[in-house]
Amino acid sequence: MPANVLFTFFGASGDLAKRKLYPALFRLYKSGHLTENFAVIGTARRPWSKAYFEEVVIESITDLADSPRQASEFASHFYYQSHDVNDTEHYQALKDLQNELGQKYQTNHNKIFFLSMAPEFFGTIAKNLKSEGIVDGQGFERLIIEKPFGTDLETAEQLNQDLAEAFEENQIYRIDHYLGKEMVQNIFAVRFANPIFEQIWSNQYIENVQITFSESIGVEDRAGYYDTSGALRDMVQNHTLQLLSILAMDKPASFDETDIREEKIKVFENLRLEDEDSLKQHFVRGQYTAGSINNKDFVGYLDEPNIAENSQTETFAAGAFFVDTDRFKDVPFFFRTGKRMTEKGTRVNIIFKKTDNIFGQAFDRNVLTIYIQPTEGFSLHINGKKVGTDFKMTPVDLKFRHSAENLVNSPEAYEKLMFDALNGDSTNFSHWREVKASWRLIDRVIDLWKNNHVPLHTYPAGSMGPKAAFELLESFDTEWHWHPDDWYREHGLLDQQ
Ligand code: BG6
């Protein structure tokens, strides 16, 4: 059923809106989930006209549209309102426009507000939406909110209280765009529809789990935000822990929102809060220095524009989390994430324990790899026998990578999340109890790092992070399974170390 709904975007002139949000709505429009009865109000400070806003929207979807006519029909549903989030009079103007469009498009008072702007305004906007009567309890009213959700537990709690003045928890959709990714969703299928994995998904058979989110880009033009955030807040508190919770959760009683949520929350609330000494040993931070990859030179983080002199911000983080549930007690969940690493790639390696060796010759551990991006798929590393009269073991990879056609059809994360929000399904959004539990742990690490109790290591641009991130796994008698840098080195494209 197509939805009747009025969207209001705060931050409509921003980069995210153009790159992700308008294309996501357009894909829903093309697939018939939005038809005639929807309108979008874009707000931002700039004084844009409706005509100019439509042009911006059209430009953001040109590659996706079947015809210019289809693009302009879609864009005709977009309206613009210049808005100062602190000025209550502006909310009155917004309310008038909402009423007008609500009637014109018969949106049945259904409203979705999307906050995609500087987080310090989130609370103010929510409060004003309520006090100025825009949130009025008629129709459904949902608030989608971009990250970051606070910068520590205290600010997250404050923000949550502010939002709670206007919205109930079940109306708040905290975005973690990784939850909308096709292969993250696929983990549910792999884990819970295949007894061969379901049966062995525990500390009895799994030795460790390795999650890599590597990025080849640097800080780009986001210095203002990134230099006060760093990798731990930017990628770990949210994306890494969300992914971990899906990998570590128990089987939900059903595949519905409440049951899934309950199991995920259990993981978050069982994250081990290690003592200071263990945290110092188990979490590593790094910052990139100059380097070259593929014959391209890159400057170090400190030489990037607008980065504070002698900034101590980490552009790389690695560590080991533990989940104290019966299922995963004592299994390390290693992660690493950073900017300017060898290549862009998100993947999970599940490293299984070795079985008793009756062969008198070495063989590998089984490894299940989940490729989240840029390619999507799985592979299973197993042991076989080499063809021949003598008995020699040989590793074999069973691989399934999506075809190019599938990749094109994979919904963009934001399309999936918008679709869920339209349908009132918040399974793939972060619940407050998850956010709270993750900050409780991450705050402890941040405290140690802020007070320089742990060295800030460096790593050359193009590498897979500082040496300390490799030593971390050695201290657990294991190693990273994925080394893309080896390939580049072998091909003479990387000459470090
Ligand atoms: C964002 C971070 O949440 O995720 C960025 O703020 C990061 O720093 C991005 O680049 C990575 O997302 P994706 O989907 O490109 O892997």
Automatic annotation (TrEMBL):
Question: What is this enzyme's EC?
Answer: 1.1.1.49
Task: State any GO BP term from the record.
Answer: pentose-phosphate shunt, oxidative branch
Pathways per UniProt: Carbohydrate degradation; pentose phosphate pathway; D-ribulose 5-phosphate from D-glucose 6-phosphate (oxidative stage): step 1/3
Highest taxon above the source species: Bacteria
Which keywords label this protein?
Carbohydrate metabolism, Glucose metabolism, NADP, Oxidoreductase
The record, for Pfam families, names: G6PD_C, G6PD_N
Pinpoint the Glucose-6-phosphate dehydrogenase C-terminal domain residues.
189-481
Listed binding positions for substrate are 177, 181, 215, 234, 339, 344
Positions of the Glucose-6-phosphate dehydrogenase NAD-binding domain:
9-186
Gene Ontology CC: one annotated term = cytosol
Residues recorded as binding NADP(+), renumbered to this chain, are: 11-18, 45, 84-85, 147
- Catalytic residues of the enzyme: 239
GO MF terms here are:
glucose-6-phosphate dehydrogenase activity; NADP binding
Which family does the UniProt entry place this protein in? Belongs to the glucose-6-phosphate dehydrogenase family.
- PANTHER family linked to this entry: GLUCOSE-6-PHOSPHATE 1-DEHYDROGENASE (PTHR23429:SF0), GLUCOSE-6-PHOSPHATE 1-DEHYDROGENASE G6PD (PTHR23429)
**Protein's job:** Catalyzes the oxidation of glucose 6-phosphate to 6-phosphogluconolactone.
Q: What is this protein called?
A: Glucose-6-phosphate 1-dehydrogenase
| Gene that this sequence comes from | zwf
